[in-house]
Every structure is written in C-alpha cells, then in structure tokens.
C-alpha cells in the first residue's frame, strides 16, 4: 500500500509530515522523509506511526526553499525497521515507492551486494538510477532508463543531489497525483487528500506516465511522447475528517452512519428510486457480476439476495484476488459492478481492467470520487459516506449495501416487475434507515458491559442464515481485524457438517436471530449449539432467555431494518472487545486502509 508525498517550497518538513498524516491510512509500519536544500541534506526514518517521525525530526529547522519526499509504509518486502523504511538512499539520490517491483531479485543480481542496505524491493531503484546516471550523465534520461527496467507496480518519487531542484516521478498501477496552486507551485501525492490547502487543481497520472517536476514547471511523458497536461479543478472542500469528540475514528464512523445515509439517499429516493448519474439502460443486462474485496465483498454477497429477490436477476459475487487469476467464462451481457470504498484496491482494479478488455459494461459503486476505479468504470455511483478513516470499514459497508439495495429496486422498476405495494414498502423502509442506524446509548452501554465476558476463549463463530449470513462474515471480519481473535462467519445450517465438533464453553457463538427470515430454522441451529455447551450470544428481538447472552435490537418487520440494526451491534461489539484488549482500533496491526498492492 504505502503513501507518498513530494513537495518543492518552504516549510518543507511540516508540509511533508502533514501530507503523510493524511496518508497514514495507507500504512503505518514506518515512515520517513528526505529533504534537499542548497546547503543541506536531511533524512529521517522511524518505525511506527507518523508521530514518531514528527518527534524524531522536531529539531530540524529549514527556512529555505527545498525539495523533499516523504513515505508512510505498509511492509511488503522486509520487516518494518528503520533500515527498510523509505526513502532508500544511494550515493547521491533518494527514492520512495508505493507498489511492488516484481523483478527486484533479478535486477539485484546484476549489482554488487555491498550496495544494498535493506531487504526491500524498492532499494534497487535508487542504485539502478545512479548506475544509469553515471553512464548517461543526464537525470531525466537516467530515470527513464531506470523505470524501463522495472516490472510490477509503482508510484515512484526520486530526488538527487545532482540537481537539488527536481522531483522525478513515475506511475504504473499505483496511484499518483500532481497538484498545483495559484502561484504555479507543484505538489505530488498518492491521493488528493494529502495535498496542501492551497492546491486547487490536480491531475491524476495514467499508467506509464513519468516525468519531472521543478519549482514552477512540469514535464510529463508516456511512451517516450511528451504529454499535454490538463489540470482539473480540485474540490476545495477537502474531505477533512476529525474525531469530533470521539476517541476513535471507528466509533465516530459507527455513530455517523445514521446521518451519512441521508447523503446516500439524497435526490435518489422519492416515490421511486432514481440514479440520475447513470446513462445506461439498466434493464438490458441478463445478469450481474459483482467483484470486491474484504468488507466490500461482504456487502456484495448480501446484495446478491436483494438482486435475486427484488430484481429477479441472476447475480454472481466474485472475490477480486481470485477472479483476476482464473480463466473466467463471463456472461458478455452481464453488468459488472466493482465495489470499493477507496476505489484504489489493486485486485478490484485489475479485475475491472480485465473485464473491460472482455467487453463487459462496468459500473463502480465507490466512496471516493476521482479514484482509479471510478475513473476507469463506464459508469459510477458514489456512496457519499464521507471520508472513512478507521481501517475497519463501517459506514462504507452500510452505504454500499444501501446503494445496492436501491439498485435492485431501480432495476426492478426499469424492468417493470415490481408491484406498487412492494415498491412503496421498500421505499418506506429505505427512508426509515436514518432512525434504524441511530446508536441508542443504552445499547452501546450494554455492549460495553457484555464485552468483558468475551476476552478469552479459543475463538468465535458468527452464525446466521440467508441474507444475514454475509453479515455474520462481516461481523467475524470486524472482530478479527481489530481484536486479533480468531473468528469465523458460518452459515448456521452448515455447522452440523463439521464445525459443531468444536463446540464447548470456550467456543463463543454470536448468533444472528432475525424474525424476518428463517426464524424457526435459525433458532433450531442455535439450540444445537447450546445443547453442545457452546457459549452463545444471540442478537435479535426475541428469545431473550434462550442462550447465555442476549443483545436486544428493536422489533422490525423489514429484513433490512433487522440487518442494519444487527450491523451496528456487530460493529460496536468488535470495537468494545478490541478496546478492552488495549488495541488501537483505528490502526490495527499489519493492516492498511487501502490495499493498493496485490
Ligand atoms: O477500499 P475497498 O472497499 O476496496 O477495500 C477493500 C478491503 O480492503 C476493505 O473492505 C477491508 O476488508 C476493510 N477495511 C475491513 O474492515
């Protein structure tokens, strides 16, 4: 993953560090900066969060105009250590990189081992550049020759003592943007978010782009050809996110769900569903294929039930990291939907590229406008969840599923297969989401108290049936990523085909018991586990005394109301367990918010 920034100007240390703080969601194993001024060189790298880097470089003062690069790392090759942190250095140059250089071992073999300090794939770039510079005596030519030798994915920034005024950049399959302010000064970053306040226009580089930025000019190339540069206006309303009194972003984002959902619905719901942003005949597709990773995949899996129930359309859900390496036989008349909060997830993006080549019509459901997945898709719908900063996805999940639910109704409408009664019922249910997603104080308190009973044991099963089964998967994913407990989501009816062998009091079962779908069947599955001494916690609106613990949701008749109130419970439960264990729920170990490497 990793986040990168580059800047030319004054207050350079502060600017680079501010940019890195905005990119910390992309990885926080280590971070580093390198700054070159006329008479000065500063390089600092630290393990852990950006605050460590800030502290370690607090005594460095620089008032001159300088060039600098900064990096926050999510480790792929080599442990998170100071040495493996970026920038990587050669004799006279510094490089930072997001992505993976797949042929780095091959390239290293051509060079002396003594050159290499780190175990990273990135370091090879700086040594290649210096070799090429020594041969060609021209920075740009040397940089060009270097990137030609690389295989894999990269967003690269490189600076060198040989000029002290240029930042070289290259992009292939990893995001990189260049921003400009009114004075014509440039800034580079993995995402718009890391640009300074005064940056008001932007270009998102294409794959194969490379070039050089200096104080007031930029040269951009692709395939040896000089490219015209068309800056677009950058929305000055930066998706700035603060904790607003909450201790953690995750908590804030759970509580925000009831308000952001109003943005998701705005202008899309009246007496029918409309998506004015779509310019396609949605009724013409013979099937739907949805592709995603992680939480977005769980939202997609849930939507399969809705597309089939409401729109009566065959729907297949694909895990992106699997789909991209299969030899899939896809329905050419299918609508291919990519779901992604960030719009940057490498596996999802690669699948999108693959199916575009196959000629399928593509639609993105995404939270980040202008992201790679949005830009590449034929059409897109924004989820409007606002900036999600916690690594554990919460509000992106509820808004994604709401969009998919609305899309299933929209297709049914356009195909003329939904009755007026059903349409009215679904729209009413959608408009009530605001109150369903509100977090009752008493519920949060109850979950906080109860969480202390679930801090040991040998693992969790989250069980459910029907559309609630993907929610069980999401509950398990949430718990494992922030509590580090083993947790598994399972279809309740499948427990007796193997996993029930694990049942004992130290096996915690979180059972979703909705009244709206397969209530009796689910209850029997719960009883089977109780009979075998598993410790069971039911989330539902009835059967308070059936199991060891009970988390009560309001009585709802609509399946999606039960679904979303259970979602809130699962999010709070995982957060409370993780907090009791002393974990940082916003930045759990080993993870990053945007997974831009495969
Ligand atoms: O940005 P995306 O929705 O494409 O991200 C996909 C997954 O990496 C993501 O949903 C991940 O599983 C969650 N952060 C888990 O909470």
Descriptive report:
With 598 residues, the protein is of the alpha/beta class. The chain has three domains: 3-236, 4-Layer Sandwich (Glutamine Phosphoribosylpyrophosphate, subunit 1, domain 1), CATH 3.60.20.10; 245-437, Rossmann fold (3-Layer(aba) Sandwich); 439-598, 3-Layer(aba) Sandwich (Rossmann fold), CATH 3.40.50.10490. 34% of the residues lie in helices and 23% in strands. It is built from 17 helices and 25 strands. The chain has an eight-stranded antiparallel sheet, with helices on one face. Helix 4 packs across helix 5, helix 6 (249-265) packs parallel to helix 11 (395-414) and helix 15 (468-483) packs parallel to helix 17. It is globular and about 75 Å long. The mean pLDDT is 93. 5-amino-5-deoxy-1-O-phosphono-D-mannitol binds at residues 293-296, 340-342, 345, 348, 391-393, 477, 481, 594-595.
Which architecture of the largest domain does the CATH hierarchy give at level 2?
Answer: 4-Layer Sandwich
> In the CATH hierarchy, what is the superfamily of the largest domain?
Aminohydrolase, N-terminal nucleophile (Ntn) domain
Helix content: 25-40%
CATH topology of the largest domain: Glutamine Phosphoribosylpyrophosphate, subunit 1, domain 1
The CATH class label of the largest domain is Alpha Beta
Tell the overall outline.
Answer: globular
Give the neighbour order of strands across the main sheet: 3-2-4-1-10-9-11-15
SS summary, helix count: 17
Q: How many structural units, i.e. domains?
A: 3
Quote the average pLDDT: 93
Structural class determined from secondary elements = alpha/beta
In angstroms, what is the radius of gyration? 25 Å
